Amino acid sequence: MQALVTGISGFVGGHLVEHLLDSGDAVSGLSHSGRWPENLAHLATSARIEACDLASIGQDEMLEILARARPEAIYHLAAQANPQASVADPRGTWALNLGGTLTLLEAVKASGLRPRVVVVGSGVCYGNPGPEHLPVSESCPLRPNNPYSASKGAADLLGIQHFLAHGTDVVMARPFNHAGPRQSSTYVLGALARQVAEVEAGIKPAVMVGNLDIVRDFTDVRDVVRAYRLLSTKGDPGEIYNLGSGRGTKLSDALEILRGRAEVPIEVQVDPSRVRPVDQPLLVADASKLRASTGWEPLFSIERTLADMLDDWRRILRDTPR
Predict the structure, then answer these.
(1) Of the candidates 296, 288, 214, which has an alpha carbon nearest to the alpha carbon of residue 248?
(2) 3-class secondary structure per residue, 133-180
(3) How many CB atoms lie within 10 A of CB 263?
(4) CA–CA separation, 15 and 40 (whole Å)
(5) Is the pTM of this model over 0.85?
(6) Which candidate, 107, 239, 244, 268, has a CA 20 to 30 Å from the CA of 293?
(7) CB contact at 8 A, 308 and 258
(8) Helix crossing, 11-22 with 221-234: angle to 10°?
(9) Mind listing the pLDDT tens digit for each residue in 135-154?
(10) 27 phi/psi in degrees, rounded to 5
């Protein structure tokens, strides 16, 4: 299958490309920089990448990209994906997350091609669901509380509208929290794994934490990208699919897993600046619709994910001159 990946050089994009190549697909992609980061340099000879700012690209330019790539499947990952950053730049977030999706879908409509488009949204668009909606199914009302989650929910509605009005072959995935090797320390499990590795290496005296009572549904990124490819072949057009393990993990338990794998005792201290005022206490996915449509099941446990993340940060620190 000929695949085109937007946001190809990001954390999820790199893992998706690896999975697509392993599945025998030909892959090309778009990123804002047009370059592979150092930790994805091994993909440079296998997947073509070109620079593209989806927040400002014109329709004609996007049509030219589609004409060159002639994709059978498009995985639309490109986004401002950090909720806190979206609060600082709401206009830029909407321009990329909704405007970029509109540009892509309009170009697909005008191209004469019929690719399956997998639009990647986010489970945070559900906001802080009440207990009657837990675990969270696709019928849960949307109550986004930041520009990131609101723009992602709007992009899903755009996908539905495009399917109903134009017959665009589009499915929407709503992944809940995911993690894995190469994840940035701007995300909570990445931050915990990095800090544990730094304490081991003698770089820091303690792990600094915020609210550890929060419960999240963490899915390994390698399971997430498998689900995206399954949706490209088995999902029903015009439908939204929650993506999550269905298992809630308290952040304090995740930290204890990491501490249990540490090579030295790990001191923990609370940093008030890390306690967010709008943190949702509990968010767990009901992914039964995804399972029924595609047969997807997660293969990686949270214990395996955290172990691999810790090993990845150990390698990074070991290879970084100090």
Answers:
(1) 214
(2) HCCECCCCCCCCCCHHHHHHHHHHHHHHHHHHHHCCCEEEEEECCEEC
(3) 12
(4) 9
(5) yes
(6) 107
(7) no
(8) 60
(9) 999 999 999 999 999 999 99
(10) -130, 135
| SS3 (DSSP) at 209 | strand
DSSP H or E segment with residue 51: strand 47-51
**Cα angle 150, 284, 266; round to 5:** 105
pLDDT tens across 102-115, in order? Answer: 999 999 999 999 99
| CB atoms near residue 212 (< 10 Å) | 18
Please give the pLDDT value at position 260. 98
**Distance of alpha carbon 121 from alpha carbon 175, whole angstroms:** 7
Both tokens assigned to 5: 């990946």
DSSP 248: E
What is the Cα–Cα distance from 198 to 34, expressed in whole angstroms?
31
How does 284-295 read in b/e, with b if 16+ C-beta sit within 10 Å?
Answer: bbbbebbeebbe
Q: Distance (Å, rounded) from C-alpha 173 to C-alpha 122?
A: 7
Tell me which residue has tokens 């070109």.
50
Position 76 pLDDT exceeds 90: yes
> In 3-state terms, what secondary structure has residue 60?
helix
Q: Which two tokens stand for residue 210?
A: 């915020």
End-to-end CA distance of the chain: 44
Within 8 A by CB and 6+ apart from 166, the residues are 109
Give CA separation, 241 vs 170, 209, 244, 255, in Å.
12, 32, 10, 29
